[in-house]
Amino acid sequence: MRFGRTGTLNLRESLPTAAEAVKRTDAWLRMKQAEGAREVLVVTGRGNQSVGKTAVVREAVRRLLGMLSTKGVVEDHSEHTPGSFAVRLAPLSAATARRAVTTSDATEPVGSPPTLEGLSEPTRDQLRRLATTALQALGVRDPTPEFVHDEMVRQCSQLGATLPAVTSTADERERLLQAAIVRAIERLDDDQR
With the CA atoms of 3, 9, 10 and 15 taken in that order, what torsion angle do they form, in degrees rounded to the nearest 10? Predict the structure, then answer.
């Protein structure tokens, strides 16, 4: 077997909630990275036993893998089977280097923020609502504050990338970002109805 018994996390066996699956997967991937593993398998299942046959755990783990790639934990991931992900872990030095980023990076444009510090409180509140709504749509109940924050950063980065490259002021760019957040929340609300 390509991954071996110790290189496989089988979430399907225990049928966890999305939040439980995210916590277990996050801790396990960080442990495997610390052990020096290069490639592992995360089995999520296809969602056939979920309510409405929706792959809630699979989608939550997919989002976690994307978030962990920004943290220097995951180098990349791909679908191994319709119910599992092959995950290539970054060397531990990559995660350490990510943590060493200084706060001077907070002056980057809103399109790719390493933090949310440059945004106004109303914009951060809107992003928090968007992140919470998106996580709830995935079936993640009671996410940790860190998980919500990471989703806020992810949403901000995605929405910021859709904004026009050239705007006259930072205030105008934030106003456009706020409008994009409102549209994203409305789309999520419509999808949940």
Answer: -170
The span from the CA of 29 to the CA of 134, in Å, is 23
Structure tokens at 161: 């990338």
| Distance separating alpha carbons of residues 147 and 150, to the nearest angstrom | 5
Q: C-alpha distances in angstroms, 101 versus 8, 46, 55, 85? A: 31, 37, 35, 29
Residue 110 in tokens: 């809103």
* Interval 113-153: pLDDT, tens: 445 778 889 999 999 999 888 887 777 777 888 888 888 88
Q: Which amino acid is it at 110? A: V
Residue with tokens 């409180």: 121
Domains in the chain, please, with CATH? 8-94 (3.30.1370.110), 103-192 (no CATH)
| DSSP type of residue 56 | H
pTM value > 0.85: no
Burial level of 149, CB count in 10 A (0-12/13-18/19+)? middle
